[in-house]
């Protein structure tokens, strides 16, 4: 029996698992994005908002989206207790980025971390890519498929190298498409090693 990562699944997950803080921002994001000049950012599948808050604290104007209203409620509460105007720099939006896409708006940075959409990851990648402004950055982190846990669905895993082939070379410069290991801890940790699939690409036009 595998999990079905639909809206009901995520709403239930956030209602059931209580947390008092959003955890640390994803270290791959911190490593890759710290060097970028802040502008507008779209964080897809933001969960409890750790990455959105980190981006906002670095000067980005963030649109943070999630399929689950229960995740956004929590993220908003986490942000409200932060200083330095972080909450004012984040707009929280409920949206299904597999189906609807991000609309007409284009962003300097579009990012997603461990979003397990229903359906193939390529469908969501197309929506993410379409939301990147010319000159902007697409940054996606997922769990690598070679470390798939027995009972979890295939959609939860993605290889950056495979996703990179979806990006037309005349429109995209792939900067990073690789697998990276890191010790699990805190945010997603179970005392083991995590294998992150990391895709970073720059939109040429
Ligand atoms: C494993 S959690 C990761 C949360 C956060 N990005 C992080 O790294 O901690 C996956 C998140 O993606 C959201 N999600 C799943 N499918 C989605 C979709 N189609 N559109 C937008 N968000 C989605 C879920 O509600 C959940 O918050």
Description of the structure:
By secondary structure, the protein is of the alpha/beta class. It has one domain: Rossmann fold, CATH 3.40.50.150. The chain is 25% helix and 28% strand. The protein is built from six helices and seven strands; from the N terminus they run ααβαβαββαβαββ. Strands 3-2-1-4-5-7-6 form a seven-stranded mixed sheet. Helix 1 crosses helix 4. The longest helix has 12 residues. The protein is globular and about 45 Å long. The mean pLDDT is 90. The chain binds S-adenosylmethionine. The site of S-adenosylmethionine has 21 residues, from strand 2. This is Methyltransferase domain-containing protein. GO terms for molecular function: methyltransferase activity. Keywords: Methyltransferase, S-adenosyl-L-methionine, Transferase.
Q: What's the gist of this structure?
A:
With 205 residues, this protein is α/β, with parallel strands linked by helices. It has helices spanning 7-16, 27-33, 50-57, 69-80, 121-130, 160-164; strands spanning 40-44, 61-66, 90-94, 107-113, 132-143, 172-183, 193-203.
CATH architecture: 3-Layer(aba) Sandwich
User: Helical region count?
Assistant: 6
Count of domains: 1
Strand order across the largest sheet: 3-2-1-4-5-7-6
Listing every helix as H and every strand as E from the N terminus to the C terminus, the arrangement reads HHEHEHEEHEHEE
Tally the beta strands: 7
**CATH topology type:** Rossmann fold
Mean pLDDT across every amino acid position: 90
Report the CATH C-level class. Answer: Alpha Beta
The CATH superfamily title: Vaccinia Virus protein VP39
Distance between the termini: 43 Å
The structural class is alpha/beta
Taking the sheet with the most strands, its summary is: 7 strands, mixed
């Amino acid at each position: 029996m595998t999990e079905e990562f639909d809206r009901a699944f995520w709403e239930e997950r956030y209602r059931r698992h209580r947390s008092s803080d959003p955890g640390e921002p994803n270290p791959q994001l911190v490593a890759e994005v710290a060097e970028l000049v802040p502008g507008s950012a779209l964080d897809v599948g933001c969960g409890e908002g750790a990455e959105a808050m980190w981006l906002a604290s670095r000067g980005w104007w963030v649109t943070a989206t999630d399929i689950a209203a229960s995740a956004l409620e929590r993220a908003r509460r986490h942000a409200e207790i932060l200083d330095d105007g972080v909450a004012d720099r984040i707009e929280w939006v409920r949206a299904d980025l597999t189906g609807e896409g991000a609309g007409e708006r284009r962003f300097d940075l579009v990012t997603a971390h461990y979003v397990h959409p229903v359906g193939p990851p390529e469908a969501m990648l197309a929506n993410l890519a379409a939301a990147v402004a010319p000159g902007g950055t697409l940054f996606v982190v997922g769990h690598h498929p070679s470390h798939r846990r027995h009972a979890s669905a295939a959609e939860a895993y993605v290889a950056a190298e495979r996703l990179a082939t979806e990006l037309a070379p005349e429109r995209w410069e792939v900067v990073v498409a690789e697998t990276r290991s890191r010790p699990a801890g805190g945010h997603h940790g179970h005392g083991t090693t995590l294998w992150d699939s990391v895709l970073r690409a720059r939109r040429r036009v």
